[in-house]
Each structure stands twice: as structure tokens, then as C-alpha cells.
From TrEMBL:
Cited PROSITE patterns: SM
CDD domains: LSm8 (cd01727)
InterPro entries, alphabetized: Lsm8 (IPR034103), LSM_dom_sf (IPR010920), PTHR15588 (IPR044642), Sm (IPR047575), Sm_dom_euk/arc (IPR001163)
Transmembrane segments: none
The protein's name in its UniProt record: LSM2-LSM8 complex subunit LSM8
Gene: LSM8
Gene3D superfamilies per the UniProt record, alphabetical: 2.30.30.100
GO biological process, one term: mRNA splicing, via spliceosome
Pfam family of the protein (one): LSM
Similarity section: Belongs to the snRNP Sm proteins family.
Principal localisation: nucleus
UniProtKB keywords: mRNA processing, mRNA splicing, Nucleus, Ribonucleoprotein, RNA-binding, Spliceosome
Amino acid sequence: MSSLQGYVDRRVLMMLQDGRVIVGVMAGFDQKSNVVLSDSKERIYSMEEGVEEVPLGLYLVKGDMIVLIGELDEAVDQAVDLTTIRAEPIPPIRY
């Protein structure tokens, strides 16, 4: 839990168990690693159309759904033209 403290008030990217990718500013977290993101967007990957960003606003992610979380370098992220990126959607994790 304490390892998430360094991400508070920073832009992060999360990959979830169902294959979704969420980007937002970490507003807070709790002892079960549930995370609150502000100004969040879901990035939807496609081989045909590039990356689509769907605004979500304030968003709560259950801790047991998070597969990966990392800080984004905002300057690098803004310099990338997401419409030119083609990628297969990430499949959900199966147990």
C-alpha cells in the first residue's frame, strides 16, 4: 500500500484485468489498493483506427482489478500522436 503513495497527484496509466487501459491523475487510494483517479480517460486500442480516448472524469478502480500501474511522463505522452498508433486490444486475464 505505501508504494502507491508516490503516485498521488501524478498522472498514471493503469492496466486492468478486463484489458482496459485507464489514464488519470491519482487522487488517492485506500488500504485495499482501491484507487481514485481524477481527469481520467480510457484508451481503446484498435488495429483500424488508432487509439481512441474516452473521457471518464472522476473514476474509482477496485484494487483487485489493477494489473499494472505506472507514472506517465506527461511531456512524452503529449508528444505522441495517438491516432497513428495501431495495436490489438489487450485481452482480459483468464484464471
